[in-house]
Amino acid sequence: MPMLATQIAADKTPGLEKREKESHKAVKRSSSNLKKLFTKALRSTGVKYIFKSKTKPPKTPIDVVRRSTFLLASLDSFEDNVDPKRFDKMQELDSLLHEMKSILYGSNECEPAVEACAQLTQELFRDNTLRLIILCLPKLNLEARKDATRIVANLQRQPVNSRLIASDYLEANPDLMDHLVSGYDDPGLALHYGAMLRECIRHQVVARYVLRSEHMKRFFDYMQIPEFDVAADATATFKELMTRHKSTIAEFLFENYDWFFTEFNAKLLESANYITRRQAIKLLGDILLDRLNSPMMTPYVSSKDNLRILMNLLRESSKNIQLDAFHVFKLFVANRNKPSDIVNILVANRSKLLRFFASFRIDKEDEQFEADKAQVVKEIAELEAIGPLFSGELHKFPPTPTASGELYKTPTACIRQLI
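Structure for MO25-like protein At5g47540 isoform X2, as requested:
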């Protein structure tokens, strides 16, 4: 029996081997066919859509700008649901804006390429894409707005052939500044437009346009907007306007002295908001102490109304406000041609002022401050009244603050007499 089994197995071996070989070949053919099918499937449009974006991103800065310009100009149709592919196109626009920002700012791995930046900048101004970015900002999502803001800001500093072409463009398109300033009317856009505006003000021609426009009066209201971040941003822009271009500011103040300081005093220095008062008195000192603004300093320190405001600011509980107010107040005292009403107000309040300065200290030692204070005290102590205020006697101011917290209040009859 064992021999028979061995013989049967031996007889079956050739057939079994043949079948195994055929089976192996079939599996190999099947595997090859599957590989071909898979490769073909990968090349098909449907699978490409899954693994790859439908829109291939442009390769050059010029392509990026031109495609962005087309999409920005088409935004209205996206919003009106006219274009069935609006979602895809909005995503593409977001991607393009991000690409532009990357070209201008570079990345963690590499610095921005000078040539690419120049190409992008030229194309943005040539195709009026900058205008579209500014005007279409409300239609973009938050991240796209951030990218757009940084793009506009960067363009103001991008030289092309050693020239800031942004300045020429904005000079020819001043209405864009109207749009940026009006952005403060919308809290959702104010910070974006404010950041753009401050960068545009780097150009003197732009700052001059804004200073001479009716927008300047609106800033006094913008700086008191209830939303703190918007008010702070408007204040930062206002400060930039009033400090960056010295000659332009001096010209503006000379031409607009009356209304400007009337608004400045009433809405900023006498504001109920502590932050507003603090920033305003600091800015006032910067303006008046600038050498180019000296023609405006004399009339300012000759006004009894201005002196009243400064003396009340000296009474603030905030040391910061007191110190900044002191730096302006000392200009009234140092004026060698004080009007009689200024002299008489200082004389009438002499005892209170001297008591105040005797205890007026700052946190850190400052020799210049101490020298200035000593000079102010000396000047006030040596002042003599110029004629009687009324009825042959020097008017006695209230020894205590009024209910409103003022250091002194001049009676109406006395003011008429001084005038």
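The radius of gyration is 37 Å.
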